[in-house]
Amino acid sequence: xxxxxxxxxxxxxxxxxxxxxxxxxxxxxxxxxxxxxxxxxxxxxxxxxxxxxxxxxxxxxxxxxxxxxxxxxxxxxxxxxxxxxxxxxxxxxxxxxxxxxxxxxxxxxxxxx
Amino acid sequence: xxxxxxxxxxxxxxxxxxxxxxxxxxxxxxxxxxxxxxxxxxxxxxxxxxxxxxxxxxxxxxxxxxxxxxxxxxxxxxxxxxxxxxxxxxxxxxxxxxxxxxxxxxxxxxxxxx
Lengths: 113, 114
Known about the structure:
The structure holds two protein chains of two kinds. In chain A, 0% of the residues lie in helices and 57% in strands. By secondary structure, chain A is mostly beta strands. In chain A, the strands form two sheets. In chain A, strands 2, 4, 5, 6, 9, 10 and 11 form a seven-stranded mixed beta sheet that branches. Chain B has no helices and twelve strands. In chain B, strands 2, 5, 6, 10, 11 and 12 form a six-stranded mixed beta sheet that branches. Chain B has a four-stranded antiparallel beta sheet with strand order 3-9-8-7, with no helix packed on it. In chain B, strands 1-4 form a two-stranded antiparallel ribbon. In chain B, strand 8 (64-69) and strand 9 (74-79) form a beta hairpin. Chain A binds chain B through residues 41-44, 46, 49, 59, 88, 90, 92, 98-107, 109, and chain B through 33, 35, 37, 42-47, 50, 89, 91, 95, 97, 100-102, 104, 106-107, 109.
């Protein structure tokens, strides 16, 4: 069966510090991968998605970047965090057909102080 | 453009009551997919159901049922005999070929009181 891992679970970082969140998927190959942010108030915002190694699409301009160095690894990064980067970050995967259901990881709660 | 509206921000019911969560969507595509997810307090989104636009049959899974009506662009979710463990935020979502991404509604916070 497929599983998706995210780490760390919780992170508190000062403004201006770098960020690296990691997501890995097991039990599937060539998945589509997604990063979402959920700010207070519940709405989910798609940040990035990837259909293959090295292929990243960005949905909104922002202080963050994403990379996919391996088929089942997706990394969310920032060089300098802003207060507005605080939120709950969720990684998800779907099969390569895109319209099928996405399965979400446990999330990382990021607080920028 | 596609859009999903969950007009109910918060709903509170007493255990064993039935509750319906509303979802209205907008898309110009004729082929699209609708989803419901549950987000318990732990935060992880749990997939509940996927429906394609050509299948309007209602679905029942235990205490959960879904009513898909293309005529009103709605995909409502009913929990029968609610339980405290049903307390969560529920999201409706839409995928269409033109948008090529999942668009989520703003979610409905359901609280089931003992």
